[in-house]
Amino acid sequence: MNEIILITHVLFGMGCILTTLWIFVDVLHASAANLPRIRSMCRASAVVMWLAFLIGGYWYVSYYKVDKALILKGPWPFAHNFIMETKEHLVITLLLVVTYLPIAAAGDLVADKGARRVLLWATGLAAVLALLMDLEGGLIALGVKVASHVNSP
Question: Where are the beta strands (DSSP E) in the chain?
């Protein structure tokens, strides 16, 4: 069951990456025709990231204790001590940025170059942070894998 929870967390996180990249490209070519799509994708990005956060938080509280102990006993304790700790703090910034996206998209993106610029910066930051979260999650998983190979008979 915990694998299903973890893969769902990853899939929603990937959804955040895809939606923010989609928004970025659409905003580069903002027009009256794609404005409704930009706004709906901003809402979708916020929703999928919040779902990733909630599912990941449930997994962290319910299942991570075993992985944490394994990582700390293995050759990559930094996978928890640095990477997981960093991820725990950076995800708050990501949540704030994606929550802001629908607000930033409410302006006149077609006529207002400043509004487009703000949304471009916000989606760019969200995409980079989401990619960083994915990388950190992969490194944490590798920390578990390396530790389990070292500690297995």
Answer: none
Residues 6+ apart with CB under 8 A from 56: 9, 13, 91
pLDDT of residue 151: 62
**In whole angstroms, what is the distance from residue 93 CA to residue 97 CA?**
6
In the chain, where are the structural domains located? 2-151
Q: Using alpha carbons, select from 122, 117, 127 the residue that is nearest to residue 30.
A: 117
Q: Which CATH code for domain 2-151?
A: 1.20.120
Q: Which two tokens stand for residue 138?
A: 């992969």
First-residue to last-residue Cα distance in the chain: 25
Q: Which residue has the tokens 């704030």?
A: 96
Q: How is residue 80 annotated by DSSP?
A: I
> Given this model, what pLDDT does residue 2 score?
80
Model's pTM, two decimal places?
0.91
Q: What is the pLDDT of residues 103-148, one digit of tens each?
A: 999 999 999 999 999 999 999 999 999 999 999 999 999 999 999 8
Q: Give how far the C-alpha of residue 129 lies from the chain's centroid of Cα atoms, to the nearest Å.
A: 6
